[in-house]
Amino acid sequence: MKYDDIPPSVRSLEQRIRNLEKDAGLVQRRRIAMALVVVSQMLPEGAVKGGSAMALRYGRNTRFTRDLDAARVKSMEKFRSDFESSLAYGWAGFTGRLVKKSPPKPAGIPSAYVMQPFEVKLDYKGRSWCTVSFELGHNEIGDTDDPEYRISKELVELFAELGLENPKPVPVMRSGHQIAQKLHAVSSPGSDRARDLVDLQLLVSAEEDLDFSQVATTCSRLFRYRKQQSWPPTISSGKDWPQLYEEAAQELDVLPTVHEALAWTNNLISQITSASENSL
């Protein structure tokens, strides 16, 4: 089923989503996936990062995420002002409001590295539709410079089927920077990010033009910049990782157990460091 006309109201939009998806869980997943894309169409200069960048790259062939993460180029004040203006202007019948939230204060993490959380309250045709959790970081080591512009055909089709305007490709953090950030996160002391083991497998398998010597340089720079753990790390299992990994890996083409994923990731680190040594 495909609609040829634009949904005239939020009620019509929701009914069309239900008609296409049938199952309540799939309706919710489609709404959230679409909402992340809608917000990404109105972002100021910067790059989408994290799981949301994975979703924009690969559509439903990655972990389901409810949050949109981005890194800014300009100051927080300038980004926020530009974003609020863009949300008010809108895209394809959608508009929004930005609500600032209190940032977390994780022990041992410098405040400069903590993402600033917001909520984006989205409307369609002037009526409330969906709320997106949005987190904003800064340009650490040039990770927002020269982003890739990506959006999966699957995500575009979610809009086309409903009679909506096709979303345009979105600036996402380059895969080498994503790999570095995920290796840093998963190797942090006390990390609960077994999900990054899933994301790393998906990134490496999908990005055929990865230059591991460049990835090694990026990893080394990021680890030095953040001044927490040293590069290269050895990844070991944390608390509840088997269950966390199993949940993150559901229905995805990745290794079945966390133990296999850990071995794969540590081998990846060895490949990256070897590429760096061979390039000297």
Automatic annotation (TrEMBL):
Superkingdom in the source lineage: Bacteria
Protein name: Nucleotidyl transferase AbiEii/AbiGii toxin family protein
